[in-house]
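fyi for ur records
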Amino acid sequence: MKLTDVTKVYKIKGGGAVKALDGVNFELPERGMVFLLGKSGSGKTTLLNVMSGLDTIDGGEIEYKGRNLGNFTPAEMDSFRNTCCGFVFQDYNLIPELTVGENIALALQLQGDRDTNAKVEKALRDVELEGYKNRRIYELSGGQKQRIAIARALIKNPEIIFADEPTGALDSATGTTILDLLKEISAEKLVVVVTHDRESAERYADRIIELADGRVICDTLTEHNTEQIKATTIEWKKPKMPLKAAIKIGCSNFKHHPVRLAWTILLAVIAFTFLGVSLTLSQYDRVRTFADVIHSSGAQTALIYKELSYYDENVINQSLDQFLGMGSKVKKYVHLTGEDLKLISSHKAGVSLLEYNTGRSQITSFQDSIVASSEDRESAQQQTDKHIAISAFGFMVLTEADCAGLGYTVTGRLPENSSEIAISECLVNTFMIAGIEEDGEVYSISSAEDIIGHKLPINKIISDNSWSGDTDDKTITGVVYTGCTREEAINHDSKPSFHDKLYISSDYFDGYTRIVSTLPEEYGDIYDLAEFVLNYADGDYSYKFSIEEIGRLYSASDMALMLKNLCLYLSAIFFVFATLLIINLVSVSVRRQMKEIGILKSLGADFKNLCKIYGGSILILGSIISVITLIATTVGVHYVNVYFNSAAGVVNIIKYSAVACISLVAIILAVSVMASIVPLIKLKKRSPSSIISQGQLR
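which gave:
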């Protein structure tokens, strides 16, 4: 090793600088025992650090076997320390989390050697500590710790041993033993020892280099200095941290911060549970849910509406619904046209029943046509199980085939044009109480046949919800018997029927409020129809699809969207806190183990190895969080389904899919790895000596 005009300057906070090395020049042989001697502050430890790659220089060159250390990349410098250098520190710098054997084996394992057991046993015998392999570091005396440090330095067969005050913390007898051991080693290797003990230096040194104020003031040569340094090719060994040791070092921090660890796990589980529920809700297949419910219900018909969505400048919606993705558009039903009927029919849906609703609770009242008083009607109602009605709730187009399919019968005939109308048996029952008034004359009605041919005044409709105030007389052509009893009429919401309609011809209106569509039988056809109806969009127009069994699926779907977005927003908030907590947990661990990190870097560990230490331990933590989160998410999804079941009458609307599960675990582990790396980035380019110094201050 050759040093040429080597300088090193330390900058002081608040300004100023200290020149620790000032133009140092000398050349070292390949073996022998060289002492760097000087008082405190003379620069001897700094010199050892830059020679060993524990620190960098600011000027000059350090050449080792034909290569300039100043040109090394951080990775090459790690390999240099891992391959060529062995370190013995004053305060031992052993890893307290590892046993004696693990500390010694670590240096060898960083070189990629996995067959370490026999070599560790030999290294312990060489330092006269056989049988200490499984001892804990805190069980050793100072001299024993220093011997272990020497064994760790020797086991990887380095070319140079760097020893910084190796006897400074030892008693005289133990110190002599350590120096005797280093002297024996120097017969085969170069041993560089930093000390302020002149007596020991003069006793053991083959060469003494004395420093003062960062300069070499004396260089005592020996016979070893006559050897020429040969430029040889060095096989650099990339450091490889063993996973077991990495996890053991990383996980040791958990026991030092139990409260912080518990809070981290708790908030992380909460955050990722919300995210898990949101991911699960995002897998909700609206079309398949509708198709499943329709198919399982065995329904034969469904109602289809057309809806217009638009923004109303007079309506300002700043509700939570809008914030959670429900939008602020105003919606209203519009007429279905002939083109709509053709389009729907093309998807294997039979279109035969056309309905028109005005938006009012009752289309019209027949009070003027019904002669009987209210008391007469109420009295008659109590004496029969037939349903009696004085108003209708919409218009409907029926064909003979429709009636046959619904089990209805018709007395007379169905209307053939817009001037005709048919009524339900419920209205006939009312007119049979006291007759019908027409042109000022009351006609007695005793059967359905009696009312056929009479005219019934119907209010004119000029728009969806607007009445002209005038009436048109429509000729009654028939009576449709729906089999509606008084009890069925009272409970008709639970069993829809068409007994409260006025029956008209297909040309009565230009368009219709809704259609009653017959459903296909095959599941695939049902799915195609549901997909078409639910996903149809023509500008601001869309279809709405409903049968009794799926009447609340729309609200359930809307709630699923709201809940997904709510969980997403909440998970984002908790996600940030959980990530910061994990980063903070690693940061605290890194600060607590700063000295150990410096030791590992001095042994040759690189940034990837440090990431393995903290990444491995945090991955274990992430795995724990993942398991708890998966359980919590499963419970959360269960209660979401319970809520939908009670609020919307839908069973298991959300299914916990494997995709959501895998995605959730992947996100947790990715966040864990990322959070474990962030605190280490600022240490990536720092020298091992500065990291060790910071760790010692802590």
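The two ends are 34 Å apart (CA to CA). thats all i got for now
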